[in-house]
Amino acid sequence: MAGLGDNAGNNSGIENLELSQNRINEILSNIIQKKSNILSPSTTTPANFLLWQNYPNPFNPSTTITFSIPIGSFVKLKVFDITGKEVKTLVNDFKQAGSHNVTFDAGNLPSGVYYYELTAAQNTSVKRMVLLK
Predict the structure, then answer these.
(1) In this structure, is residue 81 part of a structural domain?
(2) What is the pTM (predicted TM-score) of this model?
(3) Residues near 95 by Cβ (< 8 Å), separated by ≥ 6?
(4) Half-sphere exposure of 79 (CA within 13 A, CB side)
(5) Cα gap 98→115, rounded to integer Å
């Protein structure tokens, strides 16, 4: 009879383990969802002008730059080297309100620190990125 009681205890332990595993999966799922919400710009019209940090950073040879504008406006997105010399204009056009992604291919540039500057509707923001080859 003692063996039967032990077996029942083991079943309870297995059920608890399954419940714990389900809870872990639920927690991980929530963390992944929150992380993707933080890393991904909203699909709705943004309330503010925002320049996101490029991803990946450091990068080789390309990276994605994301920006959000609350109203349609003329947008300039330029990349500069460490000396302040402009190395590339990525956007020089009218853009609708919303979030926009731009890929920067630096395959022809040397490793180093670069800056990207977004100007739209009298707003300007600058971020730093690192190219590692």
Answers:
(1) yes
(2) 0.67
(3) 69, 72, 73, 74, 75, 120
(4) 22
(5) 23
Name the average pLDDT for the chain: 83
Q: For residues 72 and 126, state if they share a domain.
A: yes
Tell me how far CA of residue 16 lies from CA of 7, 23, 61, in angstroms: 14, 10, 49
Q: What share of the chain is helix, strand, coil (3-state, %, to 5)?
A: 30, 45, 30
Give tens-digit pLDDT for 105-128: 999 999 999 999 999 999 999 999
Q: 87-103: per-residue pLDDT in tens? A: 999 999 999 999 999 99
| 44 lies in some domain | no
- Identity at 49, one-letter amino acid code: F
Q: What is the DSSP letter of 55?
A: B
116, 77 in Cβ contact below 8 A? yes
- Distance between CA 87 and CA 128 in Å, rounded? 14
Phi, psi angle pair for 8, to nearest 5°: -65, -40
Residues of the domain holding 99: 50-131
User: How many structural domains are present in the chain?
Assistant: 2
